[in-house]
TrEMBL record:
A Gene Ontology term for the protein's cellular component: lysosome
Chain's role: Alpha-L-fucosidase is responsible for hydrolyzing the alpha-1,6-linked fucose joined to the reducing-end N-acetylglucosamine of the carbohydrate moieties of glycoproteins.
Location of the Alpha-L-fucosidase C-terminal domain: 376-479
UniProt keyword Membrane, yes or no: no
This protein's name: Putative alpha-L-fucosidase
Species this protein is from: Manduca sexta (Tobacco hawkmoth)
Family (UniProt): Belongs to the glycosyl hydrolase 29 family.
Class of this enzyme: hydrolase
Length: 481
């Protein structure tokens, strides 16, 4: 009996630590330890694991056989077989007649893949989690799938477990590791048979999809399962609710894992720990549920393209605007880059990520562990976005505006354009400054800034720009005296 009581107490403590319970009394121990039924109403009651909301910034990696032709996008195979002219012309001009997509796989060599170097780069960029494509729609797995004979990275091409190698180094650098997994496969004959049967059969789900996902979860214990490729069938075909119930109840990552909203026709923006809606989703306003903006540094493709133009790459300013506006509105920014077939990351992607890391080294407290404030985008100055920090974590709704019971420790105003006269004019913070109890400083600079109120707006005298450390976006911190 003594041992039994000890186990129960330890379970409660672990759940408390993993979810952050204790900082918000609206979620009880019973709710954290409950078992979830395989239906959406019950699954949707699960509290969001606290680590994810606090992380804010992740790296997305689209890597697969499609990086061998590295032309057009990661949808190369589908576009080529679908008869799109530029893909057919590309193949006719560069490969012999009868060449098959499978023949690209041995060329996916990854001979320069250095997982330690990748992990250090992502850590320097300020990422808190990394999501790797364990399998895209082409069906080729980056792990030794027991259901993908001769169509996985251990048997063909790199001849190594890419998922396992990267998972290890990402965790060694203190980041969370996650996997993307496409539910469907374009040309898998088992899936095609289910499709021909109008999805009244589930042979593919039972013999391929579920075994692969369970292998991923059990072998690599990811903190994120990023689902995709769901849109041809309803969640009942994919057995989505059964899968999530297993993840939340019995999997080795049940207390930590988070999933997105791509679980079948009609599930976007309705079900999941966080919502993606569509690709590159950034609403520019506060939502009612935790969400993520997954976007590409290459504006045209998720996978690597050899013919990418510099003009198609997000500028540093555009990258920062995506991240800052996303975090202000309660979202996480998942920044996608496509590695090459050799296993390298293009210098332009490295440069963008390292610039972000340099910026976060100065402005990190305005991003990590923050919550949405009363306003997101200043009503007078559209270049200004707000965040705040609180003493409590709202496990029930982590992206809610502060309540009267919240204790706000700081308010941040991040502005994207430096005013020509060196004076930043904003409106939404005026009421707080009018009380006379607040002081203003710029992150990375010493001393407090002078300000004055006129006509309901506040004008803040900025430091000499030549003495300011940030080069692209700047954060003002408002705290009580």
């Amino acid at each position: 009996m003594i041992i039994f009581v000890f186990v129960i107490v330890l379970s409660i403590t672990n759940a408390t630590l993993r979810h952050g319970h204790g900082s918000n009394a609206v979620v009880t121990d019973k709710e954290y330890l409950k078992r979830y039924a395989p239906d959406w109403d019950d699954l949707d009651t699960r509290p969001l694991p606290e680590w994810y909301d606090r992380a804010k910034i992740g790296i997305f990696l689209h890597w697969g056989v499609y990086c061998v032709p590295s032309f057009g996008s990661e949808w190369f195979w589908s576009n080529w077989k679908g008869g799109k002219a530029k893909y057919e012309k590309f193949m006719t001009n560069n490969y012999p007649p009868g060449f098959t997509y499978q023949e690209f796989a041995p060329m996916f060599t990854a001979e320069f893949f250095d997982p330690e170097k990748w992990a250090k780069l992502f850590a320097k960029a300020g990422a808190k989690y990394v999501v790797l494509t364990s399998k895209h729609h082409e069906g080729f797995t980056l792990f030794p799938s027991k259901r993908s004979f001769s169509w996985n990275a251990l048997e063909v091409g790199p001849k190594r477990d890419l998922v396992g190698d990267l998972a290890r180094t990402i965790r060694e650098e203190g980041m969370k590791f996650g996997v993307y997994h496409s539910l469907y496969e374009w040309f898998n004959p088992i899936y095609e048979e289910d499709k021909k049967a109008n999805f009244t059969t589930q042979t593919y789900v039972d013999t391929k999809l579920w075994p692969d996902i369970k292998q991923l979860i059990n072998d690599y214990k990811p903190s994120v399962l990023w689902s995709d490729g769901d849109w041809e069938a309803y969640d009942t075909y994919w057995k989505s609710t059964e899968l999530l119930a297993w993840l939340y109840n019995d999997s080795p990552v049940r207390d930590e894992i988070v999933v997105n909203d791509r679980w079948g026709i009609g599930t976007y923006g309705k079900h999941g720990d966080f919502f993606n809606y569509q690709d590159r989703y950034n609403p520019g306003k506060l939502l009612k549920h935790k969400w993520e903006n997954a976007f590409t540094v290459d504006g045209q493709s998720w996978g690597y393209r050899r013919n990418v133009e510099l003009s198609e790459i997000l500028s540093t300013e555009e990258l920062f605007e995506q991240i800052i506006s996303t975090v202000s509105c309660g979202g996480n920014a998942l920044i996608n880059i496509g590695p090459t077939k050799e296993g390298t990351i293009a210098p332009i992607f490295q440069e963008r990520l390292l610039s972000l890391g340099d910026w976060l080294a100065i402005n990190r407290e305005a991003i990590y562990n923050t919550s949405p404030w009363d306003s997101q985008n200043d009503t007078l100055n559209g270049d200004v976005w707000y965040t705040c920090t609180k003493t409590t974590y709202n496990a029930r709704n982590p992206i809610a505006k502060p309540s009267k019971l919240d204790s706000i420790t700081a308010i941040y105003a991040i502005f994207l354009e430096w005013p020509t006269d060196g004076v930043l004019t904003v409106r939404d913070i005026t009421m707080h400054l009018h009380s006379g109890n607040y002081q203003v400083e710029m992150l990375g600079n010493d001393g407090y800034l002078n300000w004055q109120i006129s006509g309901g707006d506040v004008s803040i005298q900025l430091p000499d720009k030549a003495e300011v450390k940030s080069e692209h976006a700047w954060s003002l911190k408002f705290t009580l005296k």
